[in-house]
Amino acid sequence: MGRGQRHSKNAGTMGSESQTYGERAALGFGTVKERLGKEAIGNYWDCKLTLQPLVDPVVTPDGYMYSKEAIYESLLAQKKANKRKLAAWEEQQRGEDRKMLEREAVDTHTKLLAFDRQNHMGASHQAAGHISDAIRAEAEAQLAEKRVVTNEVNIKENVDKIKDMKAFWLPSQTADHRTKLEKPDLDTVCPASGKKLRLKDLIPVHFTPVPEGSSGRHMDPITHDTFSNSMQLVVLRPTGDVLTKESYDKCVKPEGHWNGMKLRKNDVIELQRGGTGFSLHDGKSIESTKYWYLGPGSGMADLRGQHQGPRSATGLIFMN
Predict the structure, then answer these.
(1) What does the CA dihedral 44, 47, 50, 52 come to, rounded to 10 degrees?
(2) Helix, strand, or coil (residue 226)
(3) Which residue range or ranges hold the Nitric oxide synthase-interacting protein zinc-finger domain (predicted)?
(4) Is a pLDDT exceeding 80 seen at residue 17?
(5) pLDDT of 78
(6) How do residues 205-251 score in pLDDT, each as one tens digit?
(7) pLDDT tens-digit readout, 246-301
(8) Residue 146: is it exposed, middle or buried by C-beta count within 10 angstroms (0-12/13-18/19+)?
(9) Is the sign of the CA dihedral 119, 125, 131, 133 positive or negative?
(10) 253 with 213: CB under 8 angstroms?
């Protein structure tokens, strides 16, 4: 290993206390990036939830399309989950209110007891204070032992049997660590964008199918151009018709009418485009990143230390 001023530098390369930059890179330490294909993004006619062709398509104000049944089930599940969270939070609040009332009762009783000891039993002010502190400490300990019910449903069956079990992996046998619940947000959100979304915000979409025997799925109702993932499409809110952005700008926007209906600015919704596999079109959505933590305890790196074996010459190599 050597001696002298370079000992700290040589220790990392000649010994095995630390890894070199090349070793960390070979082990994949840090951020690993991978380029995704267009299949990871999907097509413009795919539902963002099921990743299957749209059935009874609807679109959000941000341009994400879903199958009607899939998005309805998602929003319903969110509502049920929000109700459960709200019930748990309300139960926690009731438990905290009960504790507050109990503390106030204990504090009142403590003051009365201290007053009685001072005026009728001749106790000093300091002794009465010690008694009050002891009573408060005991009351706080008893309140801490009471479990606050945070579940919507309190299961009372087989309570004695569960208490007698010594299986440490069961939730009932784990340490009682209660986290304070925050008041839940009751709004349902779009699964793709995370923005607030309600049922009435969903707009039915009507595609114009291509003639039988032609390639593709849908076409522009004005120019009859076949849609592709590289095209920017728009939905007209009043009718749900889908056009290309170019067709809308040239044929519909100047007049401001479609099928006898006047269009406002917010009546035109740009759809999220499908994947093509080209970075110029798909942007950052075709790149996936993940941060890897590699160390002695991960099982993916050899042990390091004064009495360990030599370092790895190659390590793990990510073939991306």
Answers:
(1) -50
(2) strand
(3) 20-79
(4) no
(5) 95
(6) 999 999 988 888 899 999 999 998 888 999 999 999 999 999 999 99
(7) 999 999 999 888 888 899 988 999 998 875 555 544 555 556 666 665 544 344 44
(8) exposed
(9) positive
(10) no
Q: How does DSSP classify residue 194?
A: -
What secondary structure does DSSP assign to 9-33, as a single string?
HHHHHTSSSS--HHHHHHTT-EEEE
**Residue position matching structure tokens 């106030």:** 104
Report the Cα–Cα distance between both ends of the chain, in Å, rounded.
36
Spatial neighbors of 7 by CB under 8 A, at least 6 apart, are 1
Length of the chain: 320
Q: Tokens in use for 306? A: 């004064």
Instruction: Identify residue 258 by its one-letter amino acid code.
Output: W
Question: From CA 136, how far away is CA 146, in angstroms rounded?
Answer: 16
Cα 295 to Cα 22, 31, 122, 301, 314: the distances in Å are: 15, 15, 67, 6, 16
